[in-house]
Amino acid sequence: MARLRTRLALLGSAAALAAGALAPAQFAGAQPAAAAETKQWVALGDSYTAGVIRAAGNIFEIPRDGCDRTDRSYPQVIDRDLRGLFELTNVSCGAATIENVTDTPQHPIGRHLPPISEDPDYPFPPVPPQSEAVGPDTDVITVGVGGNTLGFADFLTKCSNLGGESDGKGTPCKDALAAGISARLKNVHQEYDRMLTVLHERAPHAKILAVGYPTVIPKDTSKCGFGDLTQFGTITQGDLDWLRHDVLEPLNKAIANSTGTQEAASFVDLYAASRNHSVCDDTKWVEGFVTLPDQLSFVHPNALGHRNAADRVEAAMLDAIS
User: Fold this and answer.
1) 10 Å Cβ neighbour count for 1?
2) I need a labelling partner for 92 at 20 to 30 A (CA). Which of 27, 45, 146, 321 fits?
């Protein structure tokens, strides 16, 4: 209830500012008692932040830079919801790793995934490290990253290939890759810690909101049909259980643990709220390998998933400035 009161009060301040802009000239000297100062917000992250797929809206930036930010991704949804309270700088980028946020330039790929798809605008010039958009005047930073550092997209491809070869039986992907998971998760944790330190150094007064990943795979993987490309294609049920329990849930835990080491950072959990909206649920917030009729989506949130993320992140942002 306290969060709701805070949100209503802040939105009321924004409305008061908008009304003041329309007031007659003779009232210009009368300033609202609690006018809200616009806060500087920088959105960082990978494709789960940028949007990327058509089911998450249209690419709005012209000319394209290959990062494929879409107009129904959660930063853009929040920007419309809270216009007047925050000024958004969105530098999230599809395929970004933690290092691409921290200090390594990125070569965006757009939708160039040969032989599956070719992007007519490819290749794209490199984009600078996302942290360069952060500065001393930044008030709030949202960052959603880590999956590409872990190698989740590679897991999906490998698991699908191995599942097809095994005719859907057993856990061929787990058997091939499980031994390296612990080291990968440790690397994510270390790189995330370093990223948070860099962001805090660049913006000492900013609140950093580390956004986790939503539920992608259901707890009951019998919901997932083997060979269904609108779900996980030929990944076996056993490997889906392994990916959920030993890869994706620990990834969120690694991110949450990193935020615990930084006083200015906190974790935004998307997993619990999206629990019944996985790739294999009737009302899905994450698309499977393809979205009908012919759109490549490769397991990314759709507009409903971004709306859920916007609700969670928005509430955390309002708490951060209250």
Assistant:
1) 5
2) 321
Q: Is residue 173 part of a domain?
A: no
Q: Which of 287, 307, 308 is nearest to 299 (CA)?
A: 287
**Residue type, position 296, single letter:** L
| Interval 157-182: pLDDT, tens | 999 999 999 999 999 999 999 999 99
Residue 87 in any domain: the answer is: yes
Q: What is the mean pLDDT of residues 206-226?
A: 98
Distance (Å, rounded) from C-alpha 43 to C-alpha 91? 6
Starting at the edge strand found earlier in the chain, the sheet holding 140-144 runs 86-90, 39-45, 140-144, 207-211, 265-268
CATH of the domain at 66: 3.40.50.1110
Mean pLDDT of the chain: 90
- Domain with 202, as residue range(s), is 37-151+183-216+251-285+301-321
**pTM: predicted TM-score of the whole model, two decimal places:** 0.89
Contact 48/213 with Cβ under 8 angstroms? yes
Q: Is 58 exposed, middle or buried (0-12, 13-18, 19+ CB in 10 A)?
A: exposed
Asked, as a colleague might, if the bond just before 172 is cis with ω within 30 of 0, I would say no
| pLDDT greater than 50 at residue 8 | no
